[in-house]
Amino acid sequence: MTGGSTARIPVLFGATLGLSGADLASIAATSDDIEHAFGVGNTEIGLLVSVVTLLGALFAIPVGVVADRFRRVRILAVSVACWAVALALSGSAQSYWWMLGARSLLGVVTAAAGPLIASLVGDYVPGSRRGRVYGVILGGELVGTGCGFVVAGEIAGLSSWRIAMFWLVPIGALVAWLISRLPEPARGGPARGPDRDAHDPVPRMLAERGVRPVRRMVLHDDPAQRSLWWAIGYVLRVRTNLVVIVASALGYFFFAAIRSFAIVYAMRQYSIPKSVASLLVVVIGVGAVAGVMVGGRLTDRLLRGGHPRVRVAMPAVCLLILSPVLAAAIATTSALVAVPLLMIGTAILAAANPPFDAARLDIMHPRLWGRAEAVRTALRAMAETSGPVGLGLVADSLRTVPQGWTYSVLLFMAPLPVAGLIALLGLRTYLRDVATALASVPEASPEAGR
């Protein structure tokens, strides 16, 4: 890859995820307008968010199969273009059920992003740089989410919530066109040749430590030709992969719930107008962007410095120390006290994601990257989908209780320390799973270059 192409890759993939984040944030920023337009409550608004995630999870599995067998760049470009069309239909809704149907279509086309981007990152980017690249990609998602809160909220205030949906359509069309101009990378990743150690120091560190692969899990043929059910069973038998799936699912459960009601919560908890709440959410989001950037770069640097388990250790630590910081921020009714604490908390939560994402590629055969990501997306979404609906139900049930929103959010924080403890289990299995993935793709393997 040329330097220009390498620089464009994380930016465009970040823009792709940013579009989805902006869409979900637009629903949150305009939720009160949609409630008034269609006569619905918090539960129905939560469903508008959850249906995208749920259908995205269901359709991620077949997309994962496609990602492991066919040209991915073209499929991703078409998917982003279809996403723009689906969003236009959502903004044109004349009833709640019309909007729910349009967002169901949005969920179907959103399914393509996760498996395709994961497979492409693995083939475009050397292993020692994937944390940093994922930091940029996830940073793009967060920037998109922030833009969704601010732009959609301002547009809705000046005109209507429908226009607040339409502003993303031309951006989606532009991103689709730019992605279509990317070259399709060779299968197997850039670190599968004689200069592998220059790209990825992990094989050398494994050899120095005498780490052996799990022999029963070593693959001796091309897994792209295996059935979907075989692939699902295999990726769930990789112990570190299962740990990462469960831990990240619990984290996203909390994040999805808070993202959906961030504006409403800030307005009620801190007694501030909507315009100020939208601005505060963006300010807090700066902490999340800083977190993914620092988390990705720091873990890559520590990896090159001789700490091969850092991509599992750092997320575990982040998840364990997160709850006290967030609890203090949520318990206060002062925005001046809450905002710095929330910035720190979101930075800690966000810092866990780039190393986790890079670790998933480390422990899997390249021809399983798409299906492995699809399985993770599907299982994570089973937890993530319930977040907005669950928080909406709990908040509605505590509507008459003083500080009902505070109690609801504190209750939804419970999975975070559990996720940290689960992540610690990955420290025992990560290196052996990496060695197994490397042993499954010898340097001379014919599928490494497909």
UniProtKB/TrEMBL annotation:
<dbReference type="InterPro" id="IPR020846">
    <property type="entry name" value="MFS_dom"/>
</dbReference>
<dbReference type="GO" id="GO:0022857">
    <property type="term" value="F:transmembrane transporter activity"/>
</dbReference>
<feature type="domain" description="Major facilitator superfamily (MFS) profile">
    <location>
        <begin position="9"/>
        <end position="432"/>
    </location>
</feature>
<feature type="transmembrane region" description="Helical">
    <location>
        <begin position="73"/>
        <end position="90"/>
    </location>
</feature>
<keyword id="KW-0813">Transport</keyword>
<feature type="transmembrane region" description="Helical">
    <location>
        <begin position="133"/>
        <end position="153"/>
    </location>
</feature>
<keyword id="KW-0812">Transmembrane</keyword>
<keyword id="KW-0472">Membrane</keyword>
<dbReference type="Pfam" id="PF07690">
    <property type="entry name" value="MFS_1"/>
</dbReference>
<dbReference type="InterPro" id="IPR011701">
    <property type="entry name" value="MFS"/>
</dbReference>
<dbReference type="GO" id="GO:0005886">
    <property type="term" value="C:plasma membrane"/>
</dbReference>
<feature type="transmembrane region" description="Helical">
    <location>
        <begin position="46"/>
        <end position="66"/>
    </location>
</feature>
<feature type="transmembrane region" description="Helical">
    <location>
        <begin position="277"/>
        <end position="298"/>
    </location>
</feature>
<feature type="transmembrane region" description="Helical">
    <location>
        <begin position="159"/>
        <end position="179"/>
    </location>
</feature>
<feature type="transmembrane region" description="Helical">
    <location>
        <begin position="407"/>
        <end position="427"/>
    </location>
</feature>
<feature type="transmembrane region" description="Helical">
    <location>
        <begin position="242"/>
        <end position="265"/>
    </location>
</feature>
<protein>
    <recommendedName>
        <fullName>Major facilitator superfamily (MFS) profile domain-containing protein</fullName>
    </recommendedName>
</protein>
<feature type="transmembrane region" description="Helical">
    <location>
        <begin position="310"/>
        <end position="331"/>
    </location>
</feature>
<dbReference type="InterPro" id="IPR044770">
    <property type="entry name" value="MFS_spinster-like"/>
</dbReference>
<dbReference type="InterPro" id="IPR036259">
    <property type="entry name" value="MFS_trans_sf"/>
</dbReference>
<keyword id="KW-1133">Transmembrane helix</keyword>
<feature type="transmembrane region" description="Helical">
    <location>
        <begin position="96"/>
        <end position="121"/>
    </location>
</feature>
